[in-house]
Design goal:
The protein is α/β, with parallel strands linked by helices. It folds into 2 domains: about 110 residues, Aspartate Aminotransferase, domain 1 (Alpha-Beta Complex), CATH 3.90.1150.10; about 240 residues, Type I PLP-dependent aspartate aminotransferase-like (Major domain) (Aspartate Aminotransferase, domain 2). Helix content is about 40%, strand content about 15%. It contains 13 helices and 15 strands. The strands form 4 sheets. It has a 7-stranded mixed sheet, sandwiched between helices. Strands 11-12-15-14 form a 4-stranded antiparallel sheet, with helices on one face. Strands 1-13 form a two-stranded parallel ribbon. Helix 7 links the parallel strand 8 and strand 9. Helix 2 crosses helix 10 and helix 11 runs parallel beside helix 13. Bound molecules: pyridoxal-5'-phosphate (PLP). Pyridoxal-5'-phosphate binds next to loops. Pyridoxal-5'-phosphate (PLP) binds next to loops.
Amino acid sequence: MEPGLLLIPGPVPLHPRVLEEFAKPALPHYGDAWVQAYGETVSLMRYLWSAPNHRVFSLAGPGHTGIESIAYTFLRPGDRIVVVSNGFFGDRLREVLLTHRLKAEVVTSPWGAGPDLDGLRSALKHPTKAVAVVHNETSTGVTNPLEPILEAAHAVGAFVVVDAVSSLGGIRLPAAAIGVDAAFGASQKCLAAPAGITPVAVAPSLWESTDPKGVEGWYLNLFTWERYAREWGEWHPTPTTISSNLFYAFHRALLLVKEEGLEARYTRHAKASARLRDGLASLGFAAIASPDLVSNTVTCMSPPQGIDANTLVKRLRLEHNITISGGLGPLRGRTIRIGTMGTQAEPDVVDRLLDAVRAVV
Ligand code: PLP
């Protein structure tokens, strides 16, 4: 299949230096080279989360591995968790948490709007173990402000879990400075690595206050990962086999993040998304997100009157070999969604898309 231009909100095209890791022969998931790359990856993830003292893990699996590992490790059946949702992925968080026999309650607000903070404060009047929220809602292109959510949760002693799948590495998220207790991302979005690795970060306070004895499961139990790093760290720091090509590609992608610098990277994402939004707005598209919450990594807009979103997506693919996404949930058929993540967050990439949209609408 001719790849064309991939502009969905992840996965994104791989940087050539990341891609070349896939052409290498398979290597062992232990030994000196692995230990060195693993150690570097730990430091790079701490840099990425701006959290030098958080425990960090690179679990093999999709982004969902992150929420499941946090649920297994830090929550127990019957615990109450309040999910702040304003989109598809907020609702998905709740769906996953319910399968963990948790009392997962949801505080919803309309898609495109910000979190319902009053609703959250009143939900927190009942004893609550944790609050969960999506930092960047990929279904609407809304970036949720985390500080007021953290403040409300911490005021009642609840810890906060952040889904940073579509923001990590693209939107500022200083996990330590703002007090994020547990968070997970994904490799295939702003990090521009292949899908299949989930970076997880846990604050020392949450880690130290959790009794490992109560944890169910093994692979998604973060204490298993910590034990292997501690006891087998000299030769085999991960508990299981991980594809060496995948892991080294992830490691390479993190090195590229460090080389660019986080602040420069955030600015690049902000500029590319503003260029895209402005270009689409000039063609009559309207953002779903409130203006103060628009995302720098996912643009979700409804087309001008008379243009069908699904037809637009299809024509871009067939006539211009450009793949973007359509809407999710109630926005299906009503919106288009475009990623400006990692390798996509470049002005020439944005301009190529805008030229194609102009030719179609
Ligand atoms: N959370 C958000 C905000 C997402 O955008 C996605 C995927 O797009 C996920 C979670 C799920 O990630 P994965 O498909 O890697 O499990």
